[in-house]
Design a protein that fits this description.
Elements (H helix, E strand, L loop, with lengths): L82 H12 L6 H9 L15 H19 L28 H4 L4 H5 L7 E2 L5 E3 L5 E3 L4 E6 L4 E6 L3 E4 L2 E11 L5 E2 L6 E9 L4 E10 L4 H8 L7 E4 L17 E7 L7 E8 L3 E3 L1 H10 L16 E3 L1
Parallel strand pairs: 1-8, 2-15, 10-13, 10-14
Antiparallel strand pairs: 3-6, 4-5, 4-11, 5-7, 6-7, 7-9, 9-10, 12-13, 12-15
The structure holds zinc ion.
Length: about 375
């Protein structure tokens, strides 16, 4: 049973997705980390302990490399999303789904280039979105007809992958040799975090140092991602990581005691050694998030389109929960090539988004979450 039934909306699934971390997957220094079975204190797993090899250039930045790929049936999702939530979402999706006036204005005022094809008149925002989606989908099906987003040029040939159908998660590892880790990796993400199995105790706080920054919102065919330029770092385990980008998944890829949340934001950071650290902020239904409003306002509807946000508008500090305790474990990118050695920190306290904010994203991407992977004895630290 899917808590997020095939959308009755005319926007099926552009699902192709996220490259989420695709970023520079830099070195896999932590992949060799022996802490798999032993609950080593954070300090003992300092990056310096495991020399890393620089990532090959071609492994860098995979964002948005794939354009939307052809997709078919909706992948069935885990059943544990919370029936109340599912009920609300179902109701929302089956409703008229009128996009807010604000969004209408936003779309019209976007500083991005005009649509590639004539935009029919005045349509309700939803109709406009539908048309754009269909254009993007047609272009994708036609074979990367859409102009690649900036930054894609460096990418070599990339296998199409999706969240369902023949190129869905179960097939990622076979799509190309570079994706092998998706199938055989032992420290894959996402995972279900069971409170009963965590290593509970004191843990160093993650030191967030986020400041007003510039952002470019990218619809990369896998997700909505915001590339960030500014002074934004986190310091943990004796290393400082710079924020590169953040993006979204729905439903949340991480599960807490087998429960999924409506969405999750992944904040991807990298240190000077090329190691990645991802902070996951769970998004639950509730009050609207002013931060999400800012991002959605500049959300490009076409795959491979990007929109620059006004200077200084973006401040990730506005997205963080007030309680910054977290779960920490070693994992991988949740999208091909599923490289391991990624330090994950999942914030325990969710932040809220409104149903309308949720709906806006899911109209573009109804499902872009990889199923949970085997924990394989990994230790999950739970900061108390
Ligand atoms: Zn992600």
């Amino acid at each position: 049973m899917s808590p997020f039934p095939a959308s009755p909306s005319p926007l099926p699934a552009l699902r192709t997705l996220c490259l989420a971390l695709g970023l520079a997957l830099g070195a896999n220094a932590w992949a060799a980390d022996p802490a798999t079975a032993a609950p080593a204190p954070a300090a003992s797993r300092a990056p310096a302990a495991t020399p890393s090899a620089p990532a090959p250039a071609k492994a860098a930045s995979k964002e948005g490399r794939d354009t939307a790929s052809k997709t078919t049936p909706v992948e069935s999702l885990p059943t544990n999303s919370g029936s109340a939530m599912a009920e609300k979402i179902r109701a929302a999706l089956s409703g008229t789904a009128i996009v807010s006036k604000k969004m209408t204005v936003t779309v019209e005022d976007n500083p991005k280039p005009p649509p590639r094809t004539a935009t029919p008149t005045p349509p309700a925002a939803r109709t406009l979105a539908t048309q754009r989606y269909q254009q993007a989908r047609a272009a994708a099906v036609a074979g990367h007809a859409a102009a690649p987003a900036a930054g894609d040029k460096a990418h070599g040939g990339e296998a199409h992958w999706a969240y369902e159908g023949d190129t869905g998660p179960q097939a990622w590892g076979k799509l190309k040799p570079d994706f092998n880790t998706c199938a055989i990796g032992k420290r894959q993400s996402p995972i279900n975090i069971e409170n009963g199995n965590t290593l509970q105790g004191p843990a160093e706080p993650v030191q967030f140092a986020y400041t007003p920054s510039n952002g470019t919102v990218v619809n990369n065919g896998h997700t909505i991602q915001v590339d960030v330029q500014g002074e934004n770092t986190i310091t943990v385990r004796g290393s400082t990581y710079r924020l590169l980008q953040f993006h979204f998944h729905t439903p949340s890829e991480e599960q807490i005691n087998s429960k999924r949340f409506p969405m999750v934001a992944h904040l991807v950071h990298k240190n000077n050694e090329g190691q990645l650290a991802v902070v996951a902020v769970l998004l639950d239904e509730g009050a609207a998030s002013p931060f999400i409003d800012k991002v959605w306002t500049y959300m490009p509807l076409d795959a491979n389109d990007r929109v620059r946000m006004p200077q200084g508008l973006l401040n990730l500090a506005e997205l963080l929960p007030t309680d910054q305790r977290y779960y920490q474990f070693m994992g991988s990118l949740t999208t091909p090539p599923c490289s391991e050695g990624v330090l994950w920190m999942v914030m325990k306290q969710p932040v809220t988004i409104s149903r309308g904010q949720y709906r806006l994203f899911t109209q573009l991407y109804p499902n872009n979450a990889r199923p949970v992977q085997a924990v394989n004895g990994r230790v999950v630290r739970e900061a108390l």
